[in-house]
Amino acid sequence: MINAPTNAGSAEVTAIDTQARGPLLLLLGSGVVWLVVSGILALITSIQLHSPHFFADCSWFTFGRSQALRETTFVYGWAANAGLAIALWVMGRLGGYPLRALNWTVVGTLFWNTAIAAGLIGIATGDMTSFSLLQMPRYVQPLLVVAYASIGISGVLAWSGRKTDGTYASQWYGIAALFLFPWLLCAAQAVLLWWPVRGTVQAIAAGWYTQGVWSLWLSPLALVGAYYIVPKVAGRVLPSYDSAPLGFWTLIFVGAWTGGRHLIGGPVPAWIATMAVVSAGLLVFHYLVVALNFRIVFSASGNAIKFIRTGLIAYFLVGAFEFITSFRAIAVGTQFTFVASAIEQLGIYGGISMMFFGAMYFMVPRLTGRAWAYPGMVTGHRVVVTLGIALSIAALTYAGITQGEGLLDPKSSFAQIFGAVSVPLLINSGAQLLLLSANLLLLVNFLRSACESCCAATPATAESLFRQASKLEAHAS
Q1: How many Å apart are CA 206 and CA 193, to the nearest integer?
Q2: Is 13 helix (H, G, I), strand (E, B) or coil?
Q3: What's the CA gap between 155 and 182, in Å, rounded?
Q4: Closest CA to 197 of 205, 208, 207
Q5: Every domain of the chain and the residues it spans
Q6: By C-alpha distance, which of 234, 359, 237, 376 is closest to 308?
Q7: How distant, in Å, are the alpha carbons of 224, 372, 411 from that of 233?
Q8: Distance (Å, rounded) from C-alpha 45 to C-alpha 123?
Q9: pLDDT for 130-150, tens place per residue?
Q10: CA-to-CA distance for 163 and 175, rounded, in angstroms?
Q11: Cα separation of 99 and 74, whole Å?
Q12: What are phi and psi of 451, to 5 degrees?
């Protein structure tokens, strides 16, 4: 049962928030800084697609290395830091006790980001692997496992020491993300880097890991905040909540099996691609359950909800597009084109990141006890980032369709294909500039809000913003 605040969209400030303020703000701040860095790298790689001479004389920023740097900073820098902060905060609130072992969280955060920085240096200097999402040097990656475990201790303790016997969807997704990612990373390192398997099995393992990062780690981290915040803001229980366990277990058991869709037409057994098509179809059930649960998002208001609403729409769309493009007849014209980049942009930026943004805008005022320093920047960030995502997806989709048609036409030369897609790729560069500008607004707003919180002993605006809780209590997601 939901403990609804007096105003929809507001929530109590508890000792759970104030006691965890420093470690969680450190995680969020690290994530936002990496987000801006990844935006700069995304702009560089986007320009290089239509202007190959850009940074051509700088070996650190050739296209292959810049792309690996962008991917690493976005997934492991931005998404990991922000997602873990949101998951720990929600797990603590639903557990009903202040988070424990926060010193381990701080140490883990420092080591996690140090490992990322070392990995980026390795990538830039050419000491990188050839596997997507595993490009960092192999001697750096074990440190990621240890650092992640250190950060996740607080979440595990919040789960095991919760006040109530019942659990909620936010907790399921949170604990799944905390446990499944180390398993994915260790397994991928073992079979791809330390004791590498041979032949096409490497491609199968790499596809499994890439899909697992999306389905078993990033998606659960994003849904943690959505399942907690939407009913809080709406002030009522999620509809069709009884079906939420079915959606959860479908994602956990089926999600990683769709990785074979990346290997359609490749030198792998045909049943692997076929299983991926079947799994993608089964995974549609998960997206339908999530859509039924969150249909109330359209009747709620507030900046946080607007971000989450956009993120959920993108999340549903990426599930549909992944299913459609997994069919061989369609994949033949989209698999190795910019359509794949558009779907990736829709998923990790339009879906995951927008839900993270919404959770941050709900979470930070409750950690700091005061409103965002620049409320106008919140709206500005939402408008500009939404425009940038939409423009990038549209440009990449058009470029990908044009590119696919040209590649299937034996009369078309690569020069003709490049000329046909150069304009949409130029538009995509403009979209990346918009995204970078939007995220700079977020960085400035976050730094100012965090500094005001650290400098003020007692937040003067806290009581006017939030209802103060008389005791710690667990809340339904």
Answers
A1: 11
A2: strand
A3: 14
A4: 205
A5: 21-166
A6: 359
A7: 15, 17, 57
A8: 15
A9: 899 999 999 999 999 999 999
A10: 16
A11: 27
A12: -65, -40
pLDDT digits (tens, 9 = 90+) for 94-118: 988 888 999 999 999 999 999 999 9
Instruction: Label residues 185-222 b or e (16+ Cβ within 10 Å = b).
Output: beebbebbbeeeeeeeeebbbbbbbbbbbbbbbbbbbb
Q: Token digits for 117?
A: 């920085």
Ramachandran angles phi, psi of 131, nearest 5° = -100, 135
Report the sign of the C-alpha dihedral through residues 212, 215, 217, 218, in that order.
positive
- Specify whether the backbone of 9 is left (phi greater than 0), alpha (psi in -120 to 50) or beta: left
Q: What confidence tens digit (pLDDT) does each residue in 216-247 have?
A: 999 999 999 999 999 988 888 898 899 999 99
Beta bridge partners of 13: 468
pLDDT of residue 1: 34
Q: What is the pLDDT of residues 309-350, one digit of tens each?
A: 999 999 999 999 999 988 888 988 888 899 999 999 999 999
Cβ atoms within 10 Å of 160's Cβ, excluding its own: 9
CA nearest to 215, candidates 184, 173, 255: 255
The stretch 398-406 carries a mean pLDDT of 94
Give the amino acid at 124. A
pLDDT score, position 471:
38
- Range 360-379 burial, b when 16+ CB lie within 10 A, else e: bbbbbbbbbbbbbbeeebbe
pLDDT at res. 13: 66
Pairwise CA distance, residues 224 & 238, whole Å = 14
Q: Angle at CA 295, nearest 5°, toward 291 and 300?
A: 140
Q: How far apart are CA 458 and CA 454, in angstroms?
A: 10
pLDDT above 90: residue 435: yes
Alpha-carbon distances of 462 from 15, 21, 195, 353, 471, rounded to whole Å = 13, 14, 54, 28, 17
Q: Once rounded to an integer, what is the mean pLDDT over residues 150-179? A: 91
Q: What's the average model confidence in pLDDT over 447-464?
A: 65
**Predicted local confidence at residue 460, as pLDDT:** 42
